[in-house]
Amino acid sequence: MNKKIFLLIILFQIFGLVLSSSLQKYESIFNFGDSLSDTGNFLLSGALAFPVIGRLPYGETFFQHATGRCSDGRLIIDFIAEAFSLPYLPPYLAVTEGQSSEHGVNFAFAGATALDAEFFYERNIGSILWTNNSLNVQLGWFRKLKSTLCSNKQACDDFFGKSLFLVGEIGGNDYNYAFFLGGGIKQLQATVPLVVGVITNATSALIEEGAVELMVPGNLPIGCSAVYLTLFQSPNKADYDRHGCLKEFNAFARYHNDQLKQALTMLRQKYPHVRIIYADYYGAAMRFVHTPLHHGFYGGILRACCGGGGPYNFNNSARCGHTGSEVCQNPSLYSQWDGIHLTEAAYRYIALALINGSYSTPPLIPSAL
User: Fold this and answer.
1) I want to staple 108 with a disulfide (CB 3.0 to 4.6 A). Which of 7, 38, 215, 293 is the partner?
2) Do the record's keywords include Glycoprotein (predicted)?
3) Using one digit for the tens of pLDDT, what is the confidence trace for 54-65?
């Protein structure tokens, strides 16, 4: 990495600055996923499953008001947009009301699953779904919008040739719903190939629609999440790693990620003209789990900033934003926001790791490395 690029990345890390106009590579971004990247679709839909994201303290750090993001501020997708001098992605449901989509659109929907809702209803766990807007539904939204972006194959190839497509993170909720209802790890391992298959099929479908640059993220280390640490507390110290995370659940996340990486390798062979980037959310997040003070997380790594008490400040009967919960004074000192989602500070570190190439394979900006 040359000195100029290194200094620009350091500035981005400290101040959240764009990398450089000379590095602008993409003219639009299209994002698919769940609450890790939803910039307002869930809120705009009027869904009632998680209404607290429509009011403070959600959004307090950067926007100073709630935006429908499940965090105190910006998300990974926001930092990626900033890095390429692009505006924050409008949620799809805002675009249908007339907002511009020339620089891309966000189809992500909080609570979304990779697998279609029917899969969960057939297994009698559909009643807890936040939404039926699965990855395939989001893909349908993209196809519906496509006709407004370009009128023929050549125009679409030109437009999407300058676009970045993010397919996820998604799949985490497929496992969350089942785990929270008592599903076992071995039982859920059988679901992983199905989830990975849907993600890779959607990636393939987007390529067929004209996408040539795609980033597909893996899952976060759920064994370090306050909600998992609270719901699956164990009296056995051997169940925890030296950082206090639940080993078995992190191993499950790695299993999903390994399966996804293998599937992406096969996709690259099928589409040699396309750049398919694996985004290692797990590895990027584990950096600050391993060295929290180095990353400025003096408030804690395993405790949520906003919550209703307990050893990890996660209380399912007094979740962030609900009566009985309190928010920490400085969210930037914490990596976890509400016990399920991360803080803006944590998302910034993960985004930087993807942008500078240390946790994206191949690097997001090859010319910079």
Assistant:
1) 38
2) yes
3) 999 999 999 999
